[in-house]
Design goal:
Blueprint lengths: L14 H17 L3 E5 L2 E5 L4 E9 L2 E9 L2 H7 L9
Antiparallel strand pairs: 1-2, 3-4
């Protein structure tokens, strides 16, 4: 994945799609394994070593909660193995 273009997208999903993505994320975090996900048409692998954080923001009459995973691109490359796992 090295050499990929910068990207900053936000996509709204149905509740059922979010539940499926969060369920797979929780399973991967619990088992300390990587997982593949597709967001706004791009498929990629989140490595097992990704750092997970939860952010809360308040201002201008709004509140927001973000669940965030962060990793170095090299970590995803090191973790990449071809598998037949389902992409959500």
């Amino acid at each position: 994945m090295t050499g990929t273009a910068p990207r900053d997208v936000e996509r709204v999903y149905s509740t059922a799609d979010v539940v499926a993505k969060l369920r797979r994320l929780a399973d991967a975090l619990e088992s300390e394994t990587s997982f593949r996900i597709q967001i706004a048409g791009e498929r990629f692998r989140v490595p097992a070593r990704a750092q997970f954080s939860i952010e809360h923001e308040r201002g201008d009459g709004e509140e927001e909660v973000e669940f965030q995973l962060k990793w170095k691109i090299e970590e995803a490359d090191d973790d990449a193995e071809d598998s037949d796992e389902t992409v959500v």
